[in-house]
Sequence to fold (385 residues):
Amino acid sequence: MMRGGLHATALLLALSGCAAMSGKADYRDYRTVHLAEEPEARTRAMARYLERHPEGRWAAELRQEYEADEAVLFEENKSTREGLAFYLEAYPRGRFRDQAQARLDALARVQASRDEGEGAAQQVRRDQREEALRARRLWATQAVSFWSRILLGVDRWGAPIPEVAASSPEFDRAFGAAPRPRCSTTECIKFYQLDFAIPVPGQTRIERTLRLLLRLHLAEGRLVRAEMLMPERGFSRWYELENQEFIIDEDPEARNMAVEWALARIVPIVREVVPAAAAIDVVPEPISAPRIRAPNQPDPGASQVPGQAGAGPTGPAEATELVEGPPEALVLPLALQGLQAGNLRIVVFAASEDDEGAAYDGLFVELEEPEPAPAPPPPRRPARR
Fold:
């Protein structure tokens, strides 16, 4: 330890002596080179010394080392932007300056192109997320539009279901697609469901569920009525989903706004499909609850928009046992719009304020059976003579 200390002391004394013979700045910059521990730091210090003291006391010694290292340093650093920038900093007038600058410019162009591509990719991802959110908000609108068109396009009302399917391929594909239909001898139902959340001022969010039940009524196997039911005052949930605005069902003004909003979206679809339909006054009968058990967990495809790509077929409808639960108190719904198209009655309705049951909002299409023709009078028997 003492020998090393004496050596260091001797070195400092030698440097101090040299400093007396040269300028303080010359010595200070040379000392920076001498004490540099890392190769890069030493190279930078040599470049700085030679730039400031081209005729300095140690210029010849350092220039020899500096120039000898240039080719190796360039080879080691020519493949990266950082390495080339270091070379140009250390050898601003070096032998490979033009080559280094050209390579650095090329790498900068590549990086700029990569950054532009990444920026474009990020924008695409943002657009895709926004489109996915928009499609989710429009889930109910698209579902109502799709099924309204499908049901109003059926041309064999009153026929057995196999004949209806054979004559209406779009109906057949739509009804057979996910989620799977569940059928009994009197009704077939598809259960749709979407969970969503609404931001609420002062709170994180409100969790909501929007359900849509598509129900076909059968009479001796014949299609006589179809319903799109949104339970739990579904028009209000529909409004919340699409507008991301919280609706308090007990607030008559807010509830009425949601109902009018939904009506303004359904009626134009019906008018477009059956433009000759005539407005009628109607008092709809109470909507009975489905007697088919809903799945405990939503079936695959329950949250997919009907008719959307990927909603593949499910195969034959599943025969389902009836559910004999406690009867609900039936309340007359409010008829919002009644239309007559041939022998079909189309009614948009909403749950009344008094409805404490399932409180269905929705639309139904119903076949009006013709009045039975009066029986012909019995033939008259000729009078006896």
Notes: Residues 11-108 form one domain. Residues 97-137 form the longest helix (41 residues). Confidence is low (pLDDT under 50) at residues 1-21.
